[in-house]
Design brief:
single chain; about 750 residues; 5 domains; alpha+beta; about 20% strand; Dna Ligase, domain 1
């Protein structure tokens, strides 16, 4: 059979050599010519057979992610049509040299399915249908059988099903009656146990019966256990986390974020009185509060529900969370194992009341502590840091400030609770009044405008900005005391505020002089003197909610500045790794995990070879956009290619007002010419987009909620905004005339 390319081919070959019944196949490198492939088919396969042409990527069927079914498969192909199928599969593969293509004799099965099996747990789940396996793999409604201790425990069946069958040499859709194939299922379980023993890890196995004979079509390791929790469901949602981590997020940031979420929320629960034993018992939940899929960050909402169930008031907190984040799920979970103890129920609310009384003082003290730490960190000599010294600073921050970051979670919880109470049953006008509160956004915009005008008074400084010459900019800034003072003041306060500010791999405002120049020049001609929001005739609890909401935005800015410190430390370590010859470029550090740089793992044990693999993976991830939310049921992942274009014009009216104007559609942050657009349309924003929002007359965002940063900024700046218009970036184009109705939450194209 020769060499095998991609994980799928390697697993098939392993099964074949061990005597399992595998349809005959060949595996070839995707860069091979079809003439060579044809010779191998004629030599090693039956030219008179029908064929299955499958991808076999190095990115598929791995232990961390399977990405099953996300590449190309062509079934029931005649010999004469193989070249066309070959080209289709080849074109869908990622740009790497390790990916291959499998050409396999096609088995037109009578009864087919997928089994997920775990030897350690003695559990199996089977999804099956009459006909070929394609309909099961694609997630069609099918028979479901659940095994525990290798005995049939439960099943789901209907009277009839639609399936795909191979009839008269073509694949057709047909309706069949349900029937329990006990002997077939028994054979599948028995053979799958052998396969799982062979690979020594849980398996996802595709199989089919033809003329009562069982064929194994392929087997892959299960990327995550489907029996971790009793309901077997995983819920992924990027609704709110996409504000902090939009688009592709490299491994160092995703692993860093995972660690922070785990540590912060564990500390938050401990401070709320949850027993340490309960947290340790359910540690898996905290390991996966967030996750990455195709390089994008998602909340694992099923784990959030489990975590929230550990404290009193789950039903109320759950509802408030959904409203605040505009979550799209309404799932039921068995949370009986996570309910709070009687002791916690008795002590929780007195504890909250005590904390509430002193909370304002506590947060003010913490705010000062964070600010002083950031000032201290600004004086560290990053250019001459050794790896050990940088690791010392990292752990100094993790064990100091970050350990206390749970306080911001407590602030957000109080804000969420008050919002749930206050927003219940009020009209739109009162709702908008409730959401009109102060944040740092207005201060930033005003200070940026003041700074820009002062800098551009100096002809030499303005010229260096126009020429994007950082050297001459620094030179002339040293000569202008007032301008330099204003600039340093802005950087000290807002230096961490830029697009994608939470990503450690993002260049900050001092490193990206081109973007800084565009920003300063744009604001130099603006007539900006925005008034800070005034809290008018509000009740005590309305004022309290606004205080918590404003504080949330303040700490998001402090977080951005703090992440800037971690960014500098990461780059310092990257440069030291380059000096030691461990990596080629300092930016390669971003493809490692955070544990690879914080001293948790010894340098000799770091796998630097994963850098190149991940670079290929992430280049592939950039080629498509997965949906903002999806569900994984019984271990079956849906297709994550967001190809459907929702045509709905309705979303959430986040900021009142109406405006008509020219649109600019931006997938990534950039500063267009001020007079070239009126309405900003984008997929999602983070706080670093504030400077762009302030020069817009209307805002349309695909993802976000009523308390997302885009919504808050739009209201504060008095800009009409609509959030939640799905696929807006696909439906509208730059130059279109758009009508935005922030009162009704409607967006319409006037002309294209």
């Amino acid at each position: 059979m020769g060499n095998h390319f991609g994980n799928k081919a390697i697993y098939l070959n392993s099964l074949n050599r061990s005597g399992f019944n595998i349809p005959a196949f060949i595996s070839v490198n995707k860069n091979e010519t079809f003439t060579v492939v044809l010779k191998r088919i004629k030599k090693e396969l039956n030219p008179n057979a029908f064929f299955a042409v499958r991808s076999s990527s190095s990115l598929e069927d791995g232990f961390k992610k399977s990405y099953a079914g996300h590449f190309k498969t062509e079934l029931g192909i005649k010999f004469d049509d193989l070249k066309e199928a070959w080209i289709k599969v080849k074109d869908a593969l990622p740009m790497d040299d390790q990916s291959g293509i499998i050409i396999q004799e096609f088995i037109p099965g009578d009864y087919s399915g997928v089994i997920f099996i775990d030897l350690e747990l003695k559990k199996a789940s089977i999804n099956a249908l009459d006909g070929i396996c394609k309909s099961v793999v694609e997630g069609w409604d099918c028979e479901q059988y659940y095994y525990s201790d290798w005995k049939l425990e439960n099943k789901y069946v209907k009277n009839s099903y639609d399936c795909l069958a191979f009839v008269n040499n073509e694949i057709i859709k047909k309706t069949v009656n349900s029937s329990l194939r006990k002997e077939y299922l028994k054979k599948v379980v028995k053979e799958s146990i052998k396969i799982a023993k062979h690979f020594k890890v849980p398996q996802d196995i595709e199989w089919t019966f033809k003329n009562n004979k069982l064929y194994i079509l392929q087997s892959r390791p299960i990327s995550r256990s489907i029996w971790t929790h009793s309901n077997n469901n995983m819920l992924f949602d990027s609704a709110n986390i996409g504000e902090s981590y939009s688009g592709i997020v490299l491994p160092i940031t995703s692993s860093f974020a995972k660690k922070l979420y785990k540590d912060v929320y564990i500390n938050s629960l401990l401070k709320s009185g949850v027993e340490e034993k309960k947290i340790l018992t359910n540690s898996k939940i905290f390991d996966e509060l967030i996750d990455t899929v195709y390089g994008r960050m998602y909340y694992r909402m099923d784990n959030w529900y489990r975590m929230m169930a550990m404290i009193p008031g789950f039903d109320r907190n759950n509802k408030n969370l959904k409203n605040m984040l505009s979550l799209n799920f309404d799932e039921k979970f068995d949370l009986s194992n996570y309910k709070p103890s009687i002791f916690l129920k008795l002590t929780y609310y007195p504890r909250i009341l005590f904390k509430f009384i002193f909370f304002d003082k506590i947060m003010k003290r913490f705010h000062k502590e964070v600010e002083s730490t950031i000032v201290e960190a600004a004086n560290w000599n990053y250019k001459e840091l050794s790896i050990k010294k940088a690791q010392y600073y990292i752990n100094f921050l993790l064990n100091g400030i970050i350990k206390k970051w749970y306080l911001t979670i407590e602030n957000d919880t109080m804000m969420m609770t008050l919002y749930g109470k206050l927003s219940k049953g009020i009209n739109k006008k009162s709702h908008q009044k409730l959401l009109d509160f102060k944040s740092v956004s207005t201060k930033q915009v005003n200070q940026l405008s003041l700074l820009s005008k002062e800098l551009c008074k100096d002809i030499q400084i303005k010229k260096s900005l126009e020429e994007k010459n950082s050297t001459s900019f620094k030179k002339y800034m040293r000569r202008n005391f007032e301008a330099n003072k204003l600039f340093n003041s802005y950087i000290n306060k807002f230096g961490g505020r830029f697009a994608n500010e939470s990503k450690l791999e993002t260049r900050d405002i001092n490193e990206d002089f081109d973007s800084l120049s565009d920003l300063l020049l744009t604001y130099s001609t603006m007539n900006t003197n925005l008034k800070e929001s005034a809290n008018k005739s509000e009740t005590f609890f309305e004022g309290l909610f606004k205080k918590f909401a404003s504080r949330r935005e303040d700490f998001r800015l402090l977080r951005a500045n703090m992440f800037g410190v971690f960014r500098k430390l990461s780059i310092s370590i990257g440069k030291e790794y380059v000096k030691k010859g461990l990596i080629k470029n300092s930016d390669d550090i971003f493809y490692l995990d955070f544990e690879d740089i914080d001293g948790t793992i010894k340098m000799d044990d770091i796998d630097f070879s994963k850098i190149n693999i991940r670079k290929k993976e992430y280049n592939f991830f950039k080629t498509f956009q997965p949906p903002s939310h999806f569900k994984v049921a019984n271990g079956i992942w849906p297709s994550l290619f967001d190809s459907k274009v929702d045509q709905s014009n309705s979303g959430i009216g986040a900021s009142r007002g109406k405006v008509t104007g020219r649109a600019v559609v931006l997938e990534e942050f950039s500063i267009p010419e001020k007079d070239s657009f009126d309405i900003l349309i984008t997929r999602r924003t983070d706080p670093g987009w504030t400077s762009l929002m302030a020069i817009s007359k209307g805002i349309v965002v695909e993802h976000g909620g009523i308390l997302s940063h885009a919504s808050i900024v739009a209201r504060e700046l008095g800009i009409p905004a609509v959030i939640g218009i799905k696929n807006a970036c696909k439906r509208f184009k730059t130059g279109d005339t758009i009508f935005v109705d922030g009162d009704k939450g409607v967006v319409e194209a006037i002309s294209k």
